């Protein structure tokens, strides 16, 4: 006979399809490998709500002898009261990873294992703390996330939802950067400044943009909606919407190959007939 907690969790899962699916996948893992039962219960099945499990997972990854897990769990719960959209954004991020990463076959994989997803959720907590004036706690989370996930996002940076950070090695996002909804970011990407100036000094990445591996976008510039930045490029000036830029420094080499590059994850660099003219006029 099910306990009251199990019935409540089942009821919540019925109106939260992401959480329901994560729970089902955790149960399937236990059936396949009973040795992981304790881990699956602690990380997923012992929690009634997605947000509760998310806070616990972040805490388990980032706690150390300086700040224990319970303090991080409490901070996450308070952050949800301050900004309830944190949980919604996390769900959108899971869906984004599942839809765009062919290596991801289950919702539970980013939730438990993918450091890009986990670093992004740690940032969402740090950003809420920053906005509440708890700046030292926010900076602690930034520091720990950099150590654990090799992802360094300033707590003041503003990130949308439905974001995928793939592989998530050596990611740097500066203090005044903005990353809008449905952006895909590959490994070794920097959204940085160009010197010692203060104020608004970091890039603005608009919705639907695909940032290729190793690219650097520097300064208070804008990468327009649904554009692509090719791998290894250095972007130093604004990128118009729906364009592909490549090179050092980056130049327009053609149109984006599809309406939403971040969703299609098409990294092929097929320069169209207008690319050369665009490059000459850039």
Could you provide a short overview of the structure?
The protein is of the alpha/beta class and 282 residues long.
List the helices and strands and how they pair.
Elements: H1 4-14, H2 17-32, H3 37-45, H4 50-62, H5 69-82, H6 85-100, H7 108-112, H8 115-131, H9 135-149, E1 151-153, E2 158-159, E3 164-165, E4 171-173, E5 178-179, E6 184-185, E7 190-192, E8 204-205, E9 210-211, E10 216-218, E11 222-223, E12 228-229, E13 234-235, E14 243-246, E15 251-255, H10 261-264, H11 275-281
Helix content: 40-55%
**Which strand order spans the largest sheet, edge to edge or round the barrel?**
3-6-9-12-14-15
Please give the number of β-strands: 15
Category by helix and strand content: alpha/beta
Looking at CATH, which topology of the largest domain would you report? serine acetyltransferase, domain 1
> Judging by the overall fold, what is the CATH architecture of the largest domain?
Orthogonal Bundle
Globular, elongated, flat, extended or rod-shaped: what is the shape? globular
């Amino acid at each position: 006979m099910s306990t009251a907690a199990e019935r409540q969790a089942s009821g919540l899962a019925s109106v939260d399809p992401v959480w329901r699916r994560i729970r089902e996948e955790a149960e399937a893992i236990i059936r396949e490998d009973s040795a992981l039962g304790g881990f699956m219960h602690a990380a997923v099945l012992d929690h009634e709500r997605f947000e509760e499990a998310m806070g616990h997972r972040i805490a388990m990854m980032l706690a150390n002898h300086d700040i224990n897990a319970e303090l991080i769990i409490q901070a996450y719960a308070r952050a949800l009261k301050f900004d309830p959209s944190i949980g919604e954004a996390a769900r959108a991020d899971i869906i984004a990873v599942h839809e765009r990463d062919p290596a991801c076959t289950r919702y539970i994989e980013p939730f438990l294992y993918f450091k890009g997803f986990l670093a992004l959720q740690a940032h969402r907590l740090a950003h809420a703390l920053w906005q509440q004036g708890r700046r030292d706690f926010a900076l602690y989370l930034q520091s720990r996330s950099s150590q654990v996930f090799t992802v360094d996002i300033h707590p003041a940076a503003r990130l949308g939802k439905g974001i995928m950070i793939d592989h998530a090695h050596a990611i740097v996002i500066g203090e005044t950067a903005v990353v809008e909804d449905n952006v895909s970011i590959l490994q070794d990407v920097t959204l940085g400044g160009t010197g010692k100036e203060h104020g608004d000094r970091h890039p603005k990445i608009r919705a639907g943009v695909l940032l290729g591996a190793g690219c650097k976008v520097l300064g208070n510039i804008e990468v327009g909606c649904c554009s692509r930045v090719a791998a290894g490029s250095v972007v130093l000036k604004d990128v118009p919407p729906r364009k592909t830029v490549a090179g050092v420094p980056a130049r327009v080499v053609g149109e984006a190959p599809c309406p939403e590059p971040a969703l299609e994850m098409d990294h092929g660099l097929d320069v169209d007939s207008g690319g050369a003219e665009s490059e000459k006029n850039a």
